[in-house]
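Before a computer can learn anything about folding, someone has to put a protein's shape into writing. The outcome of that step, for a single protein, is printed below:
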Amino acid sequence: MKKIDKLILTSFIGPFILTFLVVVFILLLQHMLKYFDDIIGKDLGWDVVGTLLFYFAIFMTPLALPLAVLLSSLITFGNLSEHFEITAIKSLGISLSRALVPIFICVLFLTGFAFYVNNNVVPKAALEAYSLMYDIKQKKPALDLQEGAFYGGIPDISIKVGKKFPDGTSLKDVIIYDHRGRTGNKRVTIADSGRMFTFLNDQYLKLELFNGYDFNEGSAEQNPGTGASAESFQKTKYGKMDIVFDLSSFGLQTTDKKWFQGNRIMRNVLELDHDMDSVDNEIKGSRLASYNTKVNLFNFYGKTDSLELPADLKAYKHKKDSIAEKMNPGSTHLVTSFLQFKPIPLDSINNKTRKVADSVFNAPVNLNEVNAALNTTRMLKSQLLNSNAQRANYLAEYKVFQVQWHKIWSFSFSCIVMFLIGAPLGAIIKKGGLGVPVITSIMFFIFFYLVNSTGEKWAAQDKISVPVGIWAADFILAIIGLLFLRQARLDARLFEADFYDVVWDKIKKRLSKKKPSPSPLA
């Protein structure tokens, strides 16, 4: 039995490694096409491009692992069935379910590995990849002077060349506008010819100009005698002039990664739990403030209102008060004492005071009081609208973190689901190689991706709950996989025409039995 397990396991490991690398490459290529315009023409070194590809390759593993398991299990059991090795194993009294055990155990380890990668490695790789991608987007394109056009890539400098020779360094008819003085086009340099090259690891650009003029128009100066202002002007002829420009702005600037750490794809399960707990506290705090608004704004109306706080808000308020008591001992006692203060009964007030109170409450309402009440109501409405909008934003943010939390688990569990589909389906199809298995894998992976994307979208739109939306693809495919496993154990020929001919014949026989026999008198 150990030899059979070893045979099946070795038949799976080789195709899995190969298909995993191929799937990662395909997904990486598809993902990098989105950033092709941001990378091209930036004169990036191979080290930067290689680092970016490496991190994005790790970022693709949550999708690559389930697809690799599906494709490799299809190939493995398709080859075993095509060469009648599954038939030989069954002839020894070993069931198909027992033959799946060694690869299933391997897939369980792969599921644990997938969770570790999705939870620990992928968030760090996403942080590195997207922070580097942001720096690449901010980087200026490589220095590229075009003939007959002004180049403004160097800060406060505009350069125009009439002709650029094939050697890449020799120039003809050079014009340079220097705007570093922030005074307009008052510094202009022209040259009949020149040479251009960089030095110190492309940090500086040096222009050697020949046979030209340097024009410098100074600021306005007031003449002491006449009181009129006059512009100073300087014209210098030169045979050779060297100009050096700083190209530090063309380098790849590194942005602090702390600005990207709040993104959901860069958080692990524990961090997402903390984020969801923080957002939930903000939501409860906003709801509690809305309940307290009525008490704060309306001093008399609704004092005997029987509306109570929901259970979750009571627990939140109790927890908040407990924390406040620990932070400021005695403060809660004062509030409690104040709340327990019993007002003096009205009967104990003398008749004169009672008459004054009755006259106040029975007095006719004037216009100022009506305006004050309307202003209070408008303010309350505005506060409630702002509170509802704030809670809606908090709920959307909470769902973003909740979706990512479930995706880490569901993408890991999908390795088992894809195995339940691939292994029985390979035994049913009985075709190995990269033909039918690849087509079948792509079909199921597209179905998985569409259901997952639709579920995530509906969960964000409150059409379904987040767990249902994220786990729907795994649940549906798990049922399909169990059905395939049942058919494989029964040696069903789902992909052969004879199977459906037999099914159709059975249906016709049942339909013919249900038809009433003709009456002999008819």
Notes: The first helix runs from residue 2 to 32. The two ends are 69 Å apart (CA to CA).
